[in-house]
Design brief:
By secondary structure, the protein is α+β, with helices and mostly antiparallel strands. It folds into three domains: 147 residues, no CATH class; 150 residues, no CATH class; 107 residues, no CATH class. 13% of the residues lie in helices and 20% in strands. The protein contains seven helices and 24 strands. The strands form eight sheets. The protein has a six-stranded mixed β-sheet, with no helix packed on it. A four-stranded mixed β-sheet has the order 3-4-5-6. Strand 7 and strand 8 form a beta hairpin. Helix 1 packs parallel to helix 3. It is rod-shaped, with a radius of gyration of 50 Å.
């Protein structure tokens, strides 16, 4: 592939041809001892240049040199400049990369910049430019356009804050209870909290601690509650299966689990004292009040081998009488004795009544006002419950519950360290005023109606013009900064381009502006004194 073929394909991507571009280029002028040359068309090669050993030198003459394909080298240098102009007109983007992509995955309309680390200079801002070339009938390749020296301002990721999405750095040095963020092999962030206080004693009634094995055994026993046998000192259940002895009659359960007592009364002695733990008798009003305080406890069905509860609903059969409940839920057995002196009412909270010795023993073991199982408060010696609602005090923080009932502690760490140095390339810190100014310069645009005293707070300036104005720049630009001016004229006029004093023009001393036809200027700060600004002017096609 020849140099012409490769670059013609690039120029074609911009919608132009090489001949069309060359027709707009001015005639080149040679450089002098006091000033640069003027780009443009070059003199035709002299006779005898068919061997390709002629090259154009700075005085715009052709000189003979050795080596092969030097003519192609000279042509390529010239076409490079034309391609750069075409690229600018086509709004091509520049992208800084560490390495060139594969030509098959490279993008059109992108100029790839590779930093030349061999270049000298304090800033070392020398880059080699490459562009994707797709020759007709051939595979795409990345061709070098040449080298440029510029102040490249890559995108800087902002630092994350409460109000700003941004980046963070790893490498924080642990300080007190502040722990650094780390990244695992998969790129996921985590925080390693190296708790050092890992030694706890068993919990006591006065101090928190670990659960003892005895307490754990007690806690596991709550999963399968075993009803204890009732006694004079313990609340519990009863079994059926008692063998009647004298006037002690067994409690029985029918096929539906209903409890009943078969009382074959034959005596007429109906005088009873109040029941005690050792003798049956009438229930006192105080005991009835205590008994009414029992509720909501669900007993298993009572059997000969299981302590449990009984049901009402038994159908009386002979001298087997059913246990019933009154309107208040009080249990009783209606024994229809023919002896007129054997009818007793069920005990109430205000009147005595019949009560078995077993019930009296059971009742005496219950504290007044007892109800369902009451979870004891957790202590250092007893398993129990805790309540939420603690008010934070110092470094003591309240236990809270989420919507699923899961416990957590919100520890509101307050970082009181507010002293930061200015950020460097090796350490986090605050952004300097200069860096902030430079960052603000890269985004947004200023709008003006004159080219005089152009503002420099934003890189892009949008100008709406009705007549020619003197071009000047406000103070404040730094070396390497570029001001890009997009101009939209509402009239036709001739715009002067400064080329003396602080300015040097690469686009002549004036420019004919056409109404409605936009043009653009690039103003580059190149020095702090003398010739400080370089101007390039371009017109939209």
């Amino acid at each position: 592939m020849s140099v012409y073929e490769g670059y013609n394909s690039v120029v074609a991507a911009t919608g132009e041809d090489l001949d069309g571009i060359l027709a707009k280029v001015k005639v080149a002028t040679p450089a002098t001892a006091s000033g640069p040359g003027q780009e443009g068309l070059v003199p035709a090669p002299p006779v005898g240049s068919e061997d390709g050993r002629k090259v154009l030198v700075s005085d715009m003459t052709w000189a003979s040199i050795g080596g092969e394909s030097n003519n192609d080298i000279a042509v390529k240098g010239y076409v490079d400049n034309k391609v750069k102009e075409a690229a600018s007109a086509a709004k091509m983007k520049k992208r800084i990369v560490d390495a060139l992509p594969d030509p098959g995955s490279a993008e059109d309309n992108v100029i790839y910049l590779i930093k030349d680390n061999t270049a000298s200079g304090s800033d070392n801002n020398v880059y080699t430019e490459y562009i994707l070339v797709s020759p007709e009938g051939g595979s795409p390749v990345l061709e070098a356009l040449g080298t440029i020296q510029t102040k490249v301002e890559p995108y800087i990721l902002p630092k994350a804050s409460n109000d700003t999405l941004g980046g963070v750095k790893t490498g924080y040095t642990e300080s007190g209870k502040n722990y650094g963020v780390k990244v695992d092999s998969g790129g996921k962030m985590f925080v390693l909290v190296p708790w050092t206080d890992t030694t706890y004693s068993n919990a006591t009634s006065s101090a928190p601690g670990l659960m003892s094995s005895a307490d754990k055994s007690k806690l596991d026993g709550l999963n399968n509650y075993t009803l204890p046998t009732t006694s004079a000192s313990a609340l519990g259940g009863v079994k059926v299966g008692y063998t009647t002895n004298g006037k002690n009659y067994k409690v029985q359960v029918d096929g539906s689990g209903n409890a009943y007592v078969n009382v074959p009364w034959t005596d007429t002695n109906t005088t009873y004292n109040e029941a005690t733990t050792s003798a049956a008798g009438l229930m006192s009003a105080a005991d009835k009040t205590k008994l009414n305080g029992l509720n909501n406890y669900s007993l298993p069905t009572s059997t000969a081998s299981v302590l449990g509860g009984i049901k009402v609903g038994y159908t009386t059969s002979g001298k087997n009488y059913k246990v019933q409940l009154d309107a208040n839920g009080n249990a009783y057995v209606n024994v229809p004795w023919t002896d007129n002196n054997t009818t007793y009412s069920v005990a109430t909270t205000s009147a005595n009544g019949l009560m078995s010795r077993a019930d009296k023993s059971k009742l005496d073991g219950i504290a007044t006002g007892a109800n369902n199982y009451s979870l004891p408060k957790s202590t250092t010696t007893a398993l129990g419950g805790v309540m939420i609602g603690y008010s934070a005090n110092g470094k003591n923080y309240a236990v809270q519950l989420d919507t699923s009932g899961k416990a957590y502690v919100n520890v509101p760490w307050t970082d009181t360290n507010t002293t930061y140095n200015v950020v460097t390339q090796s350490a986090n810190g605050l952004m300097s005023a200069a860096d902030k100014k430079l960052l603000d310069f890269q985004t947004g645009a200023n709008s003006v109606t004159t080219l005089a005293n152009l503002p420099v707070t934003k890189r892009l300036v949008k100008a709406t013009l009705s007549a020619a104005t003197t071009i000047s720049v406000a103070a404040g630009m730094t070396i390497g900064q570029e001001l890009y001016v997009r101009c939209t004229p509402s009239a036709s006029f001739t715009q002067a381009i400064p080329n003396t004093g602080s300015f040097t023009s690469l686009s002549g001393s004036s420019f004919a502006v056409t109404s409605g036809k936009a043009f653009e200027m690039s103003i580059l700060k190149i020095a702090n004194s003398g010739v400080m600004y370089s101007i390039i002017l371009k017109e939209a096609e």
